[in-house]
Amino acid sequence: MSLQTWLLFVTTVFFVSATPGPNMLLAMTHGIHYGVRRTLMTCFGLMTALGLIMLGSVAGLGALLATSELLFSIVKYAGALYLVYLGIKTWRSLPQPVAELREDDSDKHGPWALFRRGFLVAMSNPKAFIFFTALFPQFMNAHQPQGPQLAILAATFYLIESSWQLSYASGGARLARWLNSARRLRLVNRFSGGAFVGAGLLLTGLSRQ
User: Fold this and answer.
1) Count of H helices and E strands in the chain?
2) Could you tell me the CA-to-CA distances from 137 to 21, 45, 54 in Å, in that order?
3) Where is the signal peptide (predicted)?
């Protein structure tokens, strides 16, 4: 892989990752409610799922999803249902002062719960499998060993994606003080909940192409 090809990959992933979507919305929302330090578990869940998606794509699951309408639909609707469920739950949640949430280490708001939520949100989009299956080969040299090239692309993606997640989480954390009122937190919950429901509904319209 040439330096020019790698730089083109960096540019592509930089702008793709920067685009607001369910992953970044979750990182920002958790940044508001839990602060950056605790949101690291959310980001860890997101990145763990993305790592599995990349492995699945390399193993051929992305190609399988691209050719099997039934399997693609099953994964798609399961992901959409989870996003809609998360959106309704977020919409209906009672506004709780940020300071209390940041100190709340119960099962509902503990590290494992944040990790699980991040993992499930990232896994909810079947097109991510196809995205990696289609994206990586565009930047790989077929005449060079594939393993090292895949490792470089995956590490680059991880670095850029995690940096954007932390940026969104930090932005949310900086907004927390201004948002720390019942009325404003209710608006945040409803905005986030509506966005997750919207993402779930949009997901049902995805096609394999």
Assistant:
1) 9, 0
2) 24, 26, 12
3) none
Of 116, 118, 107, 129, the closest CA to residue 162 belongs to 118
CA distance 44 to 158: 11
The residue behind tokens 């590490």 is 155
Spatial distance between the Cα atoms of 5 and 11, rounded to a whole number of angstroms: 10
d(CA 52, CA 59): 10
Per-residue tens of pLDDT for the chain, all 209 residues: 678 888 888 888 888 788 777 888 889 888 888 888 889 999 999 999 999 888 887 777 556 666 777 777 777 777 677 778 777 877 777 655 555 455 555 557 688 989 999 999 888 876 677 777 777 777 777 677 877 888 888 899 989 999 999 998 998 888 767 666 667 677 777 777 777 787 677 767 655 55
**The model's pTM:** 0.71
The residue type of 128 is A
